[in-house]
Amino acid sequence: MLKILFITAHPYLPQMQGGLQSSANQLCRDLVERGHKVAVLGALISGDLIGWMARIKMQINKRLFGCKVSRDIRLGYPVWRTWFPWEAVEYVANREKANLIVVMAVKPVLMALAARPTEIPVLLMLQDVEFSQHAARFEHLGDIPCIANSRFTAEKYRSKYGVDPIVIYPFMSLEKYKTEPTRENVTFINPVPEKGRDIAVQIARLCPDIPFSFVEAWPLSNEQRRELIQNLSGLSNVTLSPPQKDMRRVYGKSKILLAPSVWEEAYGMVVTEAQISGIPAIASRRGGLPEAVGPGGLLLDPEGPIEDWVQAVRKLWQDERAYADLSAAALAYAQRPEMQSDFQADAYEQALLKAAGKQKIAKRA
Predict the structure, then answer these.
(1) How far from each other are the two terminal CA atoms of the chain, in whole angstroms?
(2) b or e along 73-90 (b: 16 or more beta carbons within 10 Å of the residue's beta carbon)?
(3) pLDDT tens across 199-256, in order?
(4) Domain spans of the chain, in order of start
(5) Fewest beta carbons less than 10 Å away: which of 30, 69, 183, 221?
(6) 174-334 matches 3-171+339-355 in CATH topology
(7) Domain 3-171+339-355 adopts which CATH fold?
């Protein structure tokens, strides 16, 4: 049995809803079912009930044990939260008696280096290609085992740092997203600039006869929210929704997933989440998105003419034959073996055991 501590400088569920968080949560739950113990250390966001309660717990813990950190088990396993997670790695690892530390995205190199004093084996999950956000020099990690969330991510790190990551796609439960869509709108998830917010707004403005659903994911600052609402002003065909715990409520009304990211997505979990229900994607030909979309959608240049994006949306919205073909392709692609939960869980478990220096187990039937 492993005692695994997942660490990240990102906020965690339920304070932040995103691909990293949902994938990690599903992986943690599956590992628990397989007999392992898990815990997560992440950053804290103030301003909500969890933040308020955590601040009180942090003050108490600081007085009693000398570390300003809070702990809750609302997800069914321990989640530790604090302002600066890298300062609490050693304390939390000792409290959880961890025999493996798994580093997730956001300041990953800083977090991995913070784990060194524990002398506990460390596994690094490569979940983005934002090298400037490592917060420390990758070369200082030396020989460290890595898991990449796509072939694109693995190749980027292989070329840059000479590591040889194992590729395991983001962990997800297909049943959690599977639905029977009523095909009522074009869905755009996480309306922030990096995800192609401005492209999505332009498309919606040029397609006033087509309903669009914009769904928040990452927390928006007051300034970001004001800017978003201003951009959507006058667009009666766009509905803006807060983050959703059950994404089936979103995909249940979706006909097309729009993913016009302008940055290099490492993979693009929302694409697979949609494809599980036969919802094709119109996405950027950038980063790991082509790998996520496969044959189940259309790929466009995020810097190309907006008319190309509008034409693609209208084609899938109006051409029933073209839509049916891509919908079938999307469904089939989402069901490829490497996206199945048992396949992924086996792959993760083997990688975790190897990183912890444990003997490999036989693959489950």
Answers:
(1) 19
(2) eeeebbbbbbeebbebbb
(3) 999 999 999 999 999 999 988 888 999 999 999 999 999 999 999 989 999 999 999 9
(4) 3-171+339-355, 174-334
(5) 221
(6) yes
(7) Rossmann fold (3.40.50)
- Is 1.10.645.10 the CATH number for 174-334? no
Q: How many CB atoms lie within 10 A of CB 209?
A: 7
In Å, how far are 64, 93, 135, 316 from 266, measured between CA atoms?
41, 28, 18, 26
Would you tell me how many other CB atoms lie within 10 Å of the CB of residue 97? 11
pTM: 0.90
Q: Which residue has the tokens 């919205």?
A: 317
Q: Could you tell me if residue 26 is left (phi over 0), alpha (psi between -120 and 50 degrees) or otherwise beta?
A: alpha
In this prediction, residue 363 carries a pLDDT of 41
Q: Which residue has the tokens 């994911």?
A: 217
The amino acid present at 275, given as its one-letter code, is Q
Residue 175 is predicted with a pLDDT of 82
Q: How confident is the model over 16-64, as pLDDT tens digits?
A: 888 899 899 999 999 999 999 999 999 999 888 999 999 999 999 999 9
